[in-house]
């Protein structure tokens, strides 16, 4: 939900505004759960929000740690940082069943896993936007399996990590610390395709008095009620702007034109992550009864 270096004060205003506007599904992670915990302590509104948090990703080692002992440690750490007795939805980013059975979490979710793994879960978080349609791929099968099983899909990066807002014109605009610099989809070679799609969204937006970014969000809302987009922001003004997408009603011909722009731009071609990231995305996990570790 927030930059880990962001001061609590500014985050506090955003959380207040989100709650007041009815945005009560809060997606966070173990590295910044403390921000949410401070807000909950100040407002005493724990029962008014649904908290989804995640754990498991070791950035330095570039691995997903699903060790049963670590799972429990990470979950207990999140409970402490959040200041709550139970987490509504916990993603692995197994010993998940232990946490569920002991009442420390209400639901179990996954982030970027395979279709086979999804069949054993309650919610899935994955990237989805006009910029990234990987989950629609028949070989990956994530979207189709979620819908077959009635599983909610939590869509992160609905604006393609900001790329569909037209604020970035080339890879040279990324600052030295910007992780998008190492992602193939954001390379200089792909920017002509990115700009084509962004321009197409802006063109459709003219008919709705909306920005291209709002059209991208409206497109995601139009994909179905079983998809919940994560509207990440650091400022109240951007939160309010993004919520304006709820008022953008795309007609069937608009949705067709967006698909046409996606196809013509070829922006969805190529890997979203570097090689090490693609090795982790949409991974299979063994069923609990087939694992060697039981505690």
From TrEMBL:
Keywords for this protein: Oxidoreductase
Protein name, entry field: NADP-dependent oxidoreductase domain-containing protein
An example Gene Ontology molecular-function term: oxidoreductase activity
PANTHER family registered for this protein in UniProt: AFLATOXIN B1 ALDEHYDE REDUCTASE (PTHR43625), ALDO-KETO REDUCTASE YAKC [NADP(+)] (PTHR43625:SF40)
Domain NADP-dependent oxidoreductase, chain residue ranges per copy: 14-260
Biological source species: Piloderma croceum (strain F 1598)
InterPro entries: Aldo-Keto_reductase, NAD(P)_OxRdtase_dom_sf, NADP_OxRdtase_dom
Domain of life: Eukaryota
GO cellular component entries: cytoplasm
